[in-house]
Amino acid sequence: MSKVLTYSPVKYYLGVFIPLLLCGLICLFFRSSDTYANIIWNDLFSFNLSSSWKLNDIIIYNLPSALWVFSITLISFNIKPSITKKLPFSTTLLPLFFIIILEFFQLFNLTNGTFDILDILLPALAWLFAIFLLSRNKQAIQSMKVSFHHSILFQLVFLLVFLSDTVG
Question: Which of 43, 52, 56, 155 sits at a 20 to 30 Å CA gap from 138?
């Protein structure tokens, strides 16, 4: 097995935090100033973070969802609260279900945003890559002590998703 794909706690947490950090930075610097994150930032610090750099629309609008789906899939693997024991499926499926449902809500105008098939395809690929990494290191990751921090991280990722949404 490649050393890059071999589990270590440091690699696990880097695999969770680096994509989330990139997702947050993209949303703060390159998305509309109408996102909740930018509105809160501007209220707190009274200066705009919007960048004059231009990135490809796929990086700005599609990549962040793939990044958070990758991270939350890694986190969800070890979440075993009592409520999930009753679920008829693995918690690792929750990020995939969430992104698909969110996109269909956009398709039917039940939430802000524009339906984009890339917002399903890229996160699905990120989810598959996370599942691949988890399956290659299943025993090591299952033996990892699951803490309250995993549940907090799981919730923080969904907060990040909310903050990247636009107002109105």
Answer: 155
